[in-house]
Amino acid sequence: MMSESNESQHVCVIGLGNMGSALAEALITSGHRVTVWNRTASKCGRLAEAGASVAASVPEAAAEAQVIVVCVINHDASVSLLQTDEVASALRGRLLVQLSTVTAEESRDLGRWAEENGIAYLDGAVLASPSHIRANAGEPIVYSGPRALFDANANVLTAMGGNPIFVGEVIGGAPTFDKTIYANYYGSMLAFFHGAAICHAAGFPIETYVDQAYVSESTRRHLGEMIVKRSYGDVSVASIELDVAAYEQVTKLSEELGIDAAFPRTVASYLDRAIAKGHGQQELAAIFELMVPRNA
User: Fold this and answer.
1) 3-state secondary structure of 97
2) Among the four residues 28, 48, 79, 214, which has the most C-beta atoms within 10 Å?
3) What CATH number did the domain enclosing 157 receive?
């Protein structure tokens, strides 16, 4: 479904859990005409009061709107709602945006079904909380699929998250990309929690630690640029050999304080492996080479 990116559109949101409701509210606030449908009809009440139309069925919802946004619990729920002859007919020539929690392969399956039925398709992954969506805080939603569809519907995509980011034309790219954010977030948080555990066990104020525990943007960018170039010899921070000497004290102190040391032992194992692979005189970013597939 192609449209001018500055036009108000008629958008249908299917699935009104916390995220789906937030997306619908954001669309209403942005001035789009919104239709909603949810299996539990009572969840539509507040959105109807805010100005949304309530469809009696998924085919009715799909037939009314130019853009149909699906935000349900998983792929199976999406399939059960969408992959019927009646819905396929109603969606033909329209844009379907998948924002449910799905895998890349599941999204590709739905994309193939959409193509077979003449339905335009984008998949996405929401990297924001419902409260951030409602507040239009500029948190990202990443999308993959035909770039022309992304560009033509930028008004709707922006209304739903404030910061839509295109990550590629291959369907399934968005649900893969969001796992990179999970990997970074949970790994970073484990490191943060471990530092807090040392503070607690050693009797330092957690508040003081919280104020100091961060990685500067310049350091993160410096290491990231090394990964992009796959070149780690310009040691401007510290070599991995020096990192090992510093970090082994973290593991030792954790054990002395009786803190669970599984996390620092894992980090230390990467440092040791990096030295064994000949990266001792390179920057910490060289650990990337231990993580990617061989010859990749």
Assistant:
1) strand
2) 28
3) 3.40.50.720
